[in-house]
Amino acid sequence: MARYEQVQGTVALITLTNPPVNALSAAVRLGITETVTRALRDPEVKSMVICGENGVFCGGADIREFAKPMSGPPLVPMIAAIEEGEKPVVAAIEGAAFGGGLELALGCHYRIAHSKARVGLPEVTLGLLPAAGGTQRLPRLIGLAPALDLITTGRHVTAQEALKLGIVDQVTDQSALDLAIQFAQQVVGQPLLPRKLSTRQTPCPPDVDGLLEETMAQVKQRARGAMAPIACVQAVRAAATLPYQAGMQKEQELMATLFHSSQARAMQYCFFAQRAVGRWSLSSGAHSGNSKPRPVSKVAVIGLGTMGRGITVALVKAGMSVLAVETNKKQLEIGKQMVSAMLKHDAQKRNATPRLDLLHFTIDLLELKNTDLIIEAVFEDMALKKQVFKELSSVCKADAFLCTNTSGLDVDELAAVTKRPELVVGMHFFAPAHVMKLLEVVHGSRSSPEAVATAMHLGKRLGKVSVLVGNCAGFVGNRMLKPYLEQANFLLEEGATPELVDGALEEFGFPMGVFKMSDLSGLDVGWRIRKEAGLTGPNVDPRDPPRRRQGRRYSPLPDLVCEQGRLGQKNGRGWYLYDKPGGRVATPDPSIHKFLEEYRIKHGISPRQIDRQEVVERCLFALINEGFRSLDDGIAAGPEDIDMIYVFGYGWPRHRGGPMFYAGMVGLPRVLTRLEHYRQAHPEVPHLEPSPLLRRLVASGSPPINKWRDFLQRPHSQL
Ligand SMILES: CCCCCCCCCCCCC[C@H](O)CC(=O)SCCNC(=O)CCNC(=O)[C@H](O)C(C)(C)COP(=O)(O)OP(=O)(O)OC[C@H]1O[C@@H](n2cnc3c(N)ncnc32)[C@H](O)[C@@H]1OP(=O)(O)O
Questions:
Q1: Where in or outside the cell is it found (predicted)?
Q2: Residue 123 a catalytic site member
């Protein structure tokens, strides 16, 4: 797992060989330990170079080993042996040096990087900290403030930034390995002590305590309950305040707390789940391994409203040429201004040139005739979308893919109005579409594997986490959101305030609670959907009492709020009061409290004390329950798909792994018992009835999440 060669007569070349990313498995660690010992003992060898096979230095510790009993040589003494040795060691960094990989390079005396390489300590994103000396060596190399930034965020830096920060000594456009071998020969005989990072003092600003306190406050706010970022600050503090060995001791202690935590398990699950959702399969037997995407070079976006603009920006940022289409010149001009401004703003942030040359605007649908793939992003209205799809079907070339950006409309109904239903798929982007990482790719019953593969591949090109889902109202994400929103409204009826509900959900780790989120999206969005569904407005069945619709409990509270002209952030009044229309600072509104009190009196509801546990359980267990139903219906392929949708699209805290992972952590029997309890208390709410899949899993002894697929009634039936 580590190859040993002697090159240029005196240089020992050690190559890590553990594809695809040369992770530091037990075998690799053993290989490094043995080859370094051999090189140190061999009198012919004057210096060493460590590199990785296949153009990747090292992706860090082998994350898959974390769930198993420890074996093989530990990393800390292995890296110490490299640093303490009396022969210079040069790391030749190509591709990536992440986590333990960078820590290995920091134990080397010199680092040479290829210009396309990236380095970083992403352990915090796995619920850990860099525990092979990274929290102690990096600050000693680059100083306290930049080390705090890199370690607490886990962000990767380019070779150029790494050079500026002082992480690497040289960057080359040529072979980093060749340069490293040359370099290793040149540095023989030069004093090694100053190159041993463990012997250095951490460069610190005058007010160390001030910097650490400020960083800790920022990190705590960002962490939303995650422990690892806080432990990272504590470990880096040790690098600034303690001698090296004591700092290493602190690093190990903090790691021991994180290593077996449920948060680390959740975040490592997310790491693998994110990759797993890219491997999709259909009930037809087609899957990502046997279905090729078709090359797409010309893309068009229809409609330059909020979603269309975001999608256009995302496509241009990915280097794709985009034809943006609007219905009239005025709308086109507005869209053009907005898209250009967004691209300029984005480029400015990255110190880059905006690729306005990739953009073309038109109001003439005939210009679409050579386009490979069209993303329709018009208003969320079935009749309008159908009209657009009919037109697209006649003007676009026969093999062009037609994609609809919809948050929940029936993809099959749209496909049916075209002459090519097999080339129609849904692409549910999340607002803002150029920022949000999630894309739900919706498989219609007639979508071809090639269409699915092409949409999934396009999502990847856009840097999205693309999840394949089946076609039903709301797909996976919004379908599960419905019972969540419903419970939140019921809680208001029963005695809660928007602040209480939001506070509980924010304490759980959401960036914002359900009512703040609704205010941000605009309360009229849901109002319109409810009107169309006959839940409010003129189409309501006159026999329905005010708090019942279509045979079940219904809360008209959000409708009544809209009727008061409260539309959310956009007009400065929603469930909260805002500093100004479009403002973001929410304050509790006494008039909402009064309105809720009057509503309860009017409907004869005696308010009761509601605690945070009830809020979390009723909102989240109802959502999770719908997740089990989506799995059983074959709308979601597996629990990982649901979890990635929620982590990347709905702000579910990553350190809780996603709703389905969380259910497993809480314990399926407990989720079942609590749902049964709430269902008994609220018999008129069918969403609280535990799903048959949840019952089957509990009856089968609550198997681990990776076994749930074996219990599905109709696996992949909608996919
Ligand atoms: C009392 C008890 C005390 C307990 C104390 C315990 C002490 C334990 C001591 C531990 C010491 C810790 C040392 C260190 O600080 C910890 C770490 O290093 S954690 C790992 C940090 N590294 C990362 O987070 C990098 C992760 N990988 C990536 O970012 C990317 O994979 C990449 C390297 C940039 C490559 O990207 P891509 O080319 O896009 O490829 P993929 O991402 O698709 O990956 C391909 C394939 O490889 C798998 N993989 C990637 N990295 C790892 C890894 N580090 N370990 C295992 N597997 C990895 C990935 O899952 C893909 O596999 P597939 O899904 O296709 O099967």
A1: Peroxisome
A2: yes
Q: Which amino acid is at 515?
A: F
Q: 47-72 burial, b if ≥16 CB within 10 A, otherwise e?
A: bbbbbbbeebbbbbbbbebbeeeeeb
pLDDT band at 542 (very low <50, low <70, confident <90, very high): confident
Nearest CA to ligand 1 atom 65: 275
496-602 and 612-634+637-711 in the same fold: yes
Which residue's CA is the nearest one to ligand 1's atom 39?
A: 275
Strands 11-16 and 298-302, sheet pairing: unpaired
> Rounded CA gap, 227 and 213, in Å?
16
Fold of domain 285-474: Rossmann fold (3.40.50)
- 689 classed as catalytic: no
Question: Is-contact 100 61, C-beta < 8 A?
Answer: yes
In 3D space, the residue among 92, 99, 56 whose CA is nearest the CA of residue 75 turns out to be 99
Confidence of residue 26 (pLDDT cuts 50, 70, 90): very high
**131 CB within 6 A, ligand 1:** yes
Please pick, among 53, 65, 94, 123, the residue that the annotation labels catalytic. 123
- Sort strands 577-578 and 586-587 into parallel, antiparallel or unpaired: antiparallel
Dist. CA 60 → ligand 1 center (Å): 5
Nearest CA to ligand 1 atom 30: 59
For ligand 1, say whether the CB of 352 is within 6 Å of any of its atoms.
Answer: no
Tokens of 666: 């809480």
Peptide bond between residue 659 and the one before it cis (omega within 30 degrees of 0)? no
Q: Does the domain at residues 2-259 carry the CATH identifier 3.90.226.10? A: yes
Cis peptide before 20 (omega within 30 of 0): yes
Is the distance from the beta carbon of residue 341 to the nearest atom of ligand 1 less than 6 Å? no
Domain 496-602 part of CATH 3.30.360.10: no
> What ipTM was estimated for this complex?
0.98
Q: Going edge to edge, which strands form the sheet with 118-120?
A: 96-98, 118-120, 156-158
Q: Which atom of ligand 1 is nearest to the CA of 121?
A: 21
Mutate to test the pocket of ligand 1, among 1, 16, 21 (most ligand atoms within 8 A of CB): 21
Q: What is the pLDDT of residue 529?
A: 86
**Residue in 53, 15, 45 with CA at minimum distance from that of residue 32:** 15
Q: Whose CA is closest to atom 42 on ligand 1?
A: 275
Considering the domain 612-634+637-711 in this protein, what is its CATH number? 1.10.1040.10
Q: What residue ranges do the domains of the chain occupy?
A: 2-259, 285-474, 496-602, 612-634+637-711
